[in-house]
Give the backbone structure.
Amino acid sequence: MRRLRSGFDTPGFPVVIAAVVNLFLLICFLVWLPVHRLPRYGMSFYLPEAHYRMASFSRDNLYIVTVTAGENARAYAGGVEVPGGIQGLQARLDEWAALRDKSQKKDVTVMLEFDPAVSAGEQQRLIDMVLTRGFRCSLIGRPSVN
């Protein structure tokens, strides 16, 4: 059986220097990369705070409605209870629509805030009630507690 022999009996000086430099660069790269470039696990960071979203709405084109849950659900418009509950809210929306049409205002927004116990079906019914009268509808939410 014949043995294969390298053309070089002993590696030359440049080959040894190149291997040592490559090994040094590899070690530096492996030490430097995780420290400065990869995400750090276990460290806390803070997201920038969001600006106050209500500041983007014009107050003269905005109505805020709060709806409570239950068989005798109550509605509040601008912090004042609407007599008649949901039926009274329908009449109030009709009044606002007439005022909007008379003053030629566009983009009037009704912001709805629901009690957490209000069902999703009731929420959708009230949203549809607002949208069918030609208003823009926004929902007011609460932050979730973990």
Residues 111 and 138 are 5 Å apart (CA to CA). The helical segments are 13-36, 85-103, 120-132. The chain has a mean pLDDT of 79. The chain is about 40% helix and 15% strand.
